[in-house]
From TrEMBL:
It holds the Pfam family MTPAP-like_central. Signal peptide: none annotated. This is PAPD7. One of its GO terms (molecular function) is poly(A) RNA polymerase activity. One of its GO terms (biological process) is negative regulation of macromolecule metabolic process. InterPro entries: MTPAP-like_central (IPR054708), NT_sf (IPR043519), Trf4-like (IPR045862). GO terms for cellular component: nucleolus; TRAMP complex. It comes from the Eukaryota. Residues 37-183 form the Poly(A) RNA polymerase mitochondrial-like central palm domain.
Length: 379
C-alpha cells in the first residue's frame, strides 16, 4: 500500500493470501493436501476475524452511543433501551464490520408512571424518533462527517461514522425481530462447537465478492448463517468430526452442496432440520424465530450467481487438491485481502491500545491525588 501525501489518499490493491501470511511460505510438512488446506484456512480465519481489541473498541463505542441516547430520551421522560443486533451482537464480525444499534421502547410500569419518572409513550412515526436521535448525536459530537437519515425504506435508519475510529454505525428503531434473531444465532453458536469458523469464512468469501448485501440482491448475514447451520445440521460428519480441525472438508462440501442445491423445489428449514416443498419457486430460507413461514432471503436476487461461484470454487480447489501442492499457496484460489482494510484495522488496534494506556495513566494519577488529599485531611 502506498500513501500519497499530496492527494491525502491511500492507493491500495487486493493481494494474495500468501503476501499477508508469510509463514505459509515455510516448508511445513502435511499428511495430505486437505491437511494443508485446513491449516491455511485457519490462518485465513485468524486474519479476517476481529481481534479482541477490535471487539472491545466496538463495545466502547456502543456504550458511548447508548449512554448519550438513553440520557437524552430520559430528559424527555421517555423510557428507551438502546440494544445491539446483527453481527455486532453475535460476534460474527469480519473486516470493518458495522455496529448495528436499535432503539427499543419497553413498557412503562405503573409504579414508574405514578412516580412521574416516565410518561406513557408509544411511537407512531419511526422517522420522528430517528430525527430526535439525529439531534442527540450532533449534541454529543459522537460522529464525523455527514449523518444520513434514510427515510423512505421498509426499515428507516440513521447511518453515521463514529468519530474516533471511523467505524460505521447503523441506528434503527424497534428491531425486536433483529434482537430475537441475534439471540437465536448466539444460542446455536454455543450449541454447535466451532460453527463460527465456517460462518466467518463464508461471510468474508461473499463480502469480498459484493454478494453479502441484501439491498443489492446479495445474501444477508442472517441468511448466510441459516444456510451454514442447516448444512451442519444435515452433514453426516457433524456429530463425529470437529469443524475446526476439518474446516477444509466442511467448506468444500458446503460449496458443493449449495452449488448443486435445487432451491426451486425445497426451502431451507433449520427449525425442523429438514427440507420442505418450496411453492414459491425462489430461494426460500425460513426464519426460525417467527411463527409461520417467513423468507429471510426474499431480496436475494443473485443466488444463481452465488451458486455458480460456489460450484466454480469447489471445482477449482478440487483440481488443486489433486495436484502436488506441498509448499504452494492454495487459499488464494478462494480468498484475497484488501490491504487498506487491513491497514485501517491495524491502525485502530494501535490507537485503541494507546487510548487505554492513557486512560490507565489518568486513573493512576487521580488515585494518587485522592490518596494525597486524604493524607492532608488527616494531618
Amino acid at each position: 500500500m502506498v500513501y500519497d501525501g499530496r492527494k491525502q489518499r491511500f492507493k491500495y490493491r487486493c493481494v494474495s493470501v500468501i503476501d499477508e501470511l508469510p509463514h505459509l511460505k515455510d516448508k511445513l510438512r502435511y499428511e495430505n493436501n486437505i491437511s494443508k488446506l485446513n491449516h491455511d484456512l485457519l490462518e485465513v480465519y485468524k486474519k479476517i476475524a476481529l481481534k479482541n481489541e477490535e471487539c472491545n473498541l466496538r463495545e466502547d463505542i456502543f456504550k458511548r452511543f447508548k449512554k448519550a441516547i438513553e440520557m437524552e430520551f430520559e430528559k424527555l421522560r421517555i423510557k428507551v433501551n438502546v440494544g445491539k443486533y446483527g453481527s455486532f451482537m453475535t460476534g460474527l464480525m469480519v473486516g470493518q464490520s458495522d455496529i448495528d444499534i436499535t432503539i427499543l421502547f419497553p413498557e412503562v410500569t405503573e409504579e414508574e408512571e405514578k412516580e412521574g419518572k416516565y410518561l406513557p409513550y408509544s411511537y407512531s412515526d419511526v422517522n420522528e424518533v430517528l430525527k430526535n436521535c439525529f439531534k442527540m448525536l450532533l449534541k454529543h459530537d459522537l460522529c464525523v462527517g455527514e449523518i444520513v437519515h434514510i427515510k423512505k425504506t421498509k426499515i428507516p435508519i440513521l447511518k453515521c461514522i463514529e468519530k474516533e475510529y471511523d467505524i460505521k454505525i447503523d441506528i434503527s428503531v424497534g428491531m425486536t425481530e433483529g434482537v430475537s434473531s441475534g439471540e437465536f444465532v448466539c444460542r446455536k453458536l454455543q450449541e454447535y462447537k466451532d460453527l463460527k469458523y465456517l460462518c466467518i469464512l463464508v461471510k468474508y468469501f461473499l463480502k469480498r465478492r459484493n454478494l453479502s448485501m441484501c439491498y443489492t440482491g446479495g445474501l444477508s448475514a442472517y441468511a448466510q448463517f441459516l444456510l451454514v447451520l442447516n448444512f451442519i445440521q444435515l452433514h453426516p460428519l457433524s456429530d463425529a468430526a470437529n469443524i475446526k480441525d476439518n474446516i477444509g472438508t466442511y467448506l468444500m462440501d458446503f460449496f458443493l452442496f449449495y452449488g448443486e442445491f435445487n432451491y426451486s423445489c425445497a426451502l431451507v428449514d433449520v427449525k425442523n432440520i429438514r427440507y420442505k416443498v418450496n411453492t414459491s419457486r425462489e430461494l426460500f430460507i425460513d426464519d426460525p424465530v417467527v411463527d409461520g413461514l417467513k423468507n429471510v432471503a426474499a431480496k436475494c436476487s443473485q443466488f444463481d450467481k452465488i451458486q455458480n461461484i460456489f460450484m466454480t470454487s469447489y471445482k477449482i480447489m478440487a483440481k488443486a487438491l489433486s495436484m502436488s501442492i506441498h509448499n504452494k499457496d492454495i487459499c488464494h484460489l478462494w480468498f484475497k485481502f484488501n490491504t487498506k482494510e487491513l491497514y485501517d484495522r491495524e491502525q485502530n488496534i494501535k490507537k485503541y491500545i494507546e487510548n487505554k494506556q492513557d486512560e490507565t495513566k489518568v486513573k493512576k494519577k487521580k488515585t494518587k491525588e485522592v490518596k494525597k488529599e486524604r493524607l492532608v485531611r488527616k494531618l
